[in-house]
């Protein structure tokens, strides 16, 4: 008995085979999405669930959907003043200072001839390859009592300024870590600006200051936005710098979450602090991008 396939059946099998081949060729494209889902969204979902769980000493968290840990953090003046305000203040100020310092460095490097630009750019990259803990220990030697800064102030007859284990010390550490992340995107953006635009501005009588604000800075905004966003998110979530340079006296939210989880054993409250930090960073970033877009959209309409 012979079994023959009709034309529609043969077409269905051919179509199925083509779909399988198409899915097989596209499968590698889903690996990055799978990685992000598995190692970012799944832990975040676990963190949200933990933050809405009850806490009892000696017992694992039990999910109940409670918001008591969020209410505790967002209504207690102690946490608002010592963790929330400190985090916002230091991360915003350090980002602004990193932008000022980084923009000057990036502008100088971008204006150099290409053969000299590469060496200084590689020096910025090399600074990122040094472990952050080693860089912090280097800052400790520089800023500690009896260190280089303290010795120079003493030689100049100036009063001693305590830097280590204060907000000033943490701020210096945050700026030092953030500057390379601001410099690198800015170098490429500023170097890509067409010199003819600056020459055109100069030909109509604009001085260097006017040319910078009318041509260079607006065209370098993509690098400014990228660098400041990276610097802000890194500094807002900083842990090593406030831990090693703050000496436990400067409590940012990342450090507080760590203390709650490891010292107090209160994982639900630590998770609530972590989720609050994430939401806070997203809100500040959204406000920043909205202000940038609105400001330059208005300026573009005015011109």
Describe the structure.
The protein is mainly α. The protein has helices at 7-51, 68-75, 77-111, 114-129, 132-143, 148-155, 167-191, 195-203, 208-219, 221-236, 240-245, 253-262, 267-302, and strands at 53-54, 62-63. Strands 1-2 form a two-stranded antiparallel ribbon. Helix 7 runs antiparallel to helix 10 and helix 10 (221-236) runs antiparallel to helix 13. The N and C termini lie far apart (84 Å).
SSE blueprint:
Elements: H1 7-51, E1 53-54, E2 62-63, H2 68-75, H3 77-111, H4 114-129, H5 132-143, H6 148-155, H7 167-191, H8 195-203, H9 208-219, H10 221-236, H11 240-245, H12 253-262, H13 267-302
Antiparallel strand pairs: 1-2
Helix pairs in contact: 1-13, 3-7, 3-10, 4-7, 7-10, 8-9, 10-13, 12-13
What's a quick, concise take on this entry?
This protein has 13 helices and 2 strands; from the N terminus they run αββαααααααααααα. It has helices at 7-51, 68-75, 77-111, 114-129, 132-143, 148-155, 167-191, 195-203, 208-219, 221-236, 240-245, 253-262, 267-302; strands at 53-54, 62-63.
* Uncertain segments: none
Structural class: mainly alpha
How big a fraction of the residues is strand? Answer: under 5%
Average pLDDT, to the nearest integer? 87
For the secondary structure, the number of strands is 2
CA-CA gap between termini:
84 Å
Overall body shape: globular
- Please bin the fraction of helical residues: over 70%
Count, helices: 13
Strand order of the largest sheet: 1-2
What is the ordering of alpha helices and beta strands?
HEEHHHHHHHHHHHH
Radius of gyration computed on alpha carbons:
27 Å
């Amino acid at each position: 008995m012979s079994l023959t396939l009709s034309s529609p059946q043969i077409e269905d099998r051919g179509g199925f085979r083509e779909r399988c081949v198409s899915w097989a060729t596209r499968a590698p494209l889903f690996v990055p999405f799978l990685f992000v889902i598995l190692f970012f969204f799944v832990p975040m979902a676990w963190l949200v669930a933990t933050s809405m769980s009850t806490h009892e000493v000696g017992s694992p968290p039990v999910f109940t959907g409670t918001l008591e840990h969020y209410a505790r953090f967002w209504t207690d003046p102690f946490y608002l003043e010592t963790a929330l305000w400190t985090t916002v203040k230091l991360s915003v100020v350090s980002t602004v200072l990193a932008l000022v310092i980084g923009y000057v460095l990036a502008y100088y490097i971008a204006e150099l001839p290409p053969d000299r630009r590469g060496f200084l750019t590689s020096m910025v990259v090399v600074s990122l390859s040094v472990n952050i803990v080693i860089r912090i220990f280097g800052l400790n030697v520089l800023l500690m009592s009896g260190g280089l800064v303290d010795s120079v102030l003493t030689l100049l007859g100036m009063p001693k300024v305590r830097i280590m284990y204060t907000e000033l010390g943490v701020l210096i550490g945050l700026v030092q870590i953030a500057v390379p992340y601001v410099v690198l995107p800015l170098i490429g953006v500023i170097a890509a600006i067409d010199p003819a635009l600056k020459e055109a501005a100069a030909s109509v009588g604009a001085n260097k200051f006017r040319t910078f604000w009318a041509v260079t800075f607006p065209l370098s905004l993509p690098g400014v936005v990228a660098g400041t966003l990276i610097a802000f998110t890194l500094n807002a979530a900083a842990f090593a710098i406030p831990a090693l340079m703050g000496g436990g006296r400067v409590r940012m939210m990342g450090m507080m979450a760590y203390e709650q989880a490891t010292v107090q054993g209160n994982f639900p409250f630590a998770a609530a602090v972590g989720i609050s930090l994430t939401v806070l960073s997203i809100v500040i970033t959204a406000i920043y991008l909205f202000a940038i877009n609105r400001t330059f959209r208005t300026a573009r309409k005015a011109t």
